[in-house]
Amino acid sequence: MIETRLIDGKAFAETLRARIATEVAAFRQATGVTPGLAVVLLGEDPASAVYVRNKGRQTIEAGMASFEHRLPAETSQDDVLALVRALNADPAVHGILVQLPLPAHIDAQAVLATIDPAKDVDGFHVVNAGRLAVGLDALVPCTPLGCVMLLKDTLGSLAGLEAVVVGRSNIVGKPLAQLLLREDATVTIAHSRTRDLPAVCRRADILIGAVGRPEMIKGDWIKPGATVIDVGINRVPKPDGGTRLVGDVAFEEAQGIAGAITPVPGGVGPMTIACLLANTLTAAKRLVG
Ligand SMILES: Nc1nc(=O)c2c([nH]1)NC[C@@H]1CN(c3ccc(C(=O)N[C@@H](CCC(=O)O)C(=O)O)cc3)C=[N+]21
């Protein structure tokens, strides 16, 4: 039985946000420009509301400007596209985030394609996805960026390590695989059709849960000593009628097996927001400088 180390994403994110705030102050001093982040939210999804609130507060705490656009869920696609174009043209806005998922009547790819790639702080535009894939400077998706920061802090070099990413989404699994490759890890992307998923996971020195299925990854899927990053944030019912947050990994089962693991909450989630602020500052520097 080994002692499983907790990877404190919340503390790491606080340190990162403090560093960003220092850089923002220097940037404002040097240029007279305040980096600005615009967030577009359609409808009233309660989980998204928490995220948007935290984001707005932390943006202001970092010394940046926060512009929130809350639109009714019924807003037409043309109106959303018109808003995105206005934000593209607004010199006070350096980062644009359109909260996903969007209502079914909106073509999310059309919206993402309309965001100026230079302001695409989510890194979801095909230009940024393509630039990441071929190794050019890109705005990189925030959650994968935060995962790799935690991994490098925990492990040092990732070179030659066997990484298994469970989940193939455009927002986490695929870009995370690109970033891990860039760090010279050996990368497998596993998904719902993967044969003998437990055995594939047991090969991993680095195991990433990014599927959005509560506690799907069991303790005996983890190689002893592996580093586990849990991207899932799933709200599940408690016996008393309330709810609690759990990850994609069975956290209690992982104790004594994993070498290190991120908790949920307090792991990857806070890193996502910190990386969003980092990307907004990067975008502002490139747009102004
Ligand atoms: N265009 C777009 N970009 C996103 O990055 C994006 C999105 N849409 N849609 C929604 C998801 C969700 N997401 C979270 C980020 C941080 C926390 C977070 O900070 N969670 C804390 C607190 C959780 C809680 O207490 O509710 C934690 O895990 O410790 C959660 C969720 C970003 N998303």
Q: What would you note in describing this structure?
A:
The longest helix has 23 residues. The chain is α/β, with parallel strands linked by helices. The chain has two domains: 85 residues, Rossmann fold (3-Layer(aba) Sandwich); 128 residues, Rossmann fold (3-Layer(aba) Sandwich), CATH 3.40.50. Strand 9 and strand 10 form a beta hairpin. The mean pLDDT is 97. The protein contains ten helices and eleven strands. It is globular. It binds 5,10-Methenyltetrahydrofolate. Keywords: Amino-acid biosynthesis, Histidine biosynthesis, Hydrolase, Methionine biosynthesis, Multifunctional enzyme, NADP, One-carbon metabolism, Oxidoreductase, Purine biosynthesis. One of its GO terms (molecular function) is methenyltetrahydrofolate cyclohydrolase activity.
Residues in β-strands, percent: 15-25%
Output the CATH homologous superfamily of the largest domain. NAD(P)-binding Rossmann-like Domain
Could you please say which CATH topology of the largest domain applies here? Answer: Rossmann fold
Q: What is the CA-CA span between the terminal residues?
A: 53 Å
**Separate helix tally:** 10
Tell the overall outline.
globular
Task: Give the spatial strand order of the biggest sheet.
Answer: 1-11-8-7-5-6
Number of domains: 2
Q: What is the CATH C level class of the largest domain, in words?
A: Alpha Beta
